[in-house]
């Protein structure tokens, strides 16, 4: 054994350090019944003059989250190289097989890309995508944003989110970037729910990194799409890479998620009846909802209380619920 890490079979068909605007593909080998020597072709664009910061913008990490995908498709067409100081790397559908299927996870290997970082060059296709991002794209950039929405099972108050950094200087830069993005809510997390996310990998690489949760329910609407469209441009302007041509960011409500005690999970299987709206201010112990037992109509529903005081920033979308499903989570104003 030499100790040298195994080479990745993933490659990219453009020069990531060239200037101007380039469209190309990240090529992930995938030999299947339909395509013996085939590869997964993930669209990527690199735009800029290389004389300034380098930023990675991703969406479609989860395939059923759309504001970010649409915002980045617009950005990669509309951003003129002459406008950009530095380099913007744009990938609208990072887990392409998942996005093409409209699913959170990849139908090829059931891979949840955002639970597979830092990836594995010899792993499943989804693990190979994570490894390429971690070993090639994060080291060549200094800042990144990974654009999520709630997806098929959740809906969020539109927000930017990040872990609270240890460094005071980075915390200030991060909160400036989040404020510039201009989502109605800025969510700061005290702890991570998983250290296998793109966000965790970006932090490990020293990135200025934010994520978003913009809406949900596996759809978009004009209001949430506008947040994503304008947010990515305001972020680039904040980083000094483009001249701001957007309206200034609206005020954002700064909130904190302390930990697991602010989440409510389904204890039993049945039909979930929420007794709150997204955005409601609630009190610990108040009735949050019921789970009905449609196969046992004579049985009283199970009642569930809010686990803490706070604001409901996230709720479950499907009414069908099973043990372990997240029904809501709360945050508190800072
Ligand atoms: Ca997501």
What does this 3D model show about the protein?
The chain is α+β, with helices and mostly antiparallel strands and 334 residues long. It has two domains: 247 residues, Zn peptidases (Aminopeptidase); 71 residues, RNA polymerase II/Efflux pump adaptor protein, barrel-sandwich hybrid domain (OB fold (Dihydrolipoamide Acetyltransferase, E2P)). Helix content is 21%, strand content 30%. The chain has a 15-stranded mixed β-sheet that branches. It has a four-stranded antiparallel β-sheet with strand order 16-15-13-18, with no helix packed on it. α1 crosses α6. The radius of gyration is 21 Å and the shape is globular. It starts with 10 loop residues before the first strand and ends with a strand. Calcium ion binds next to loops.
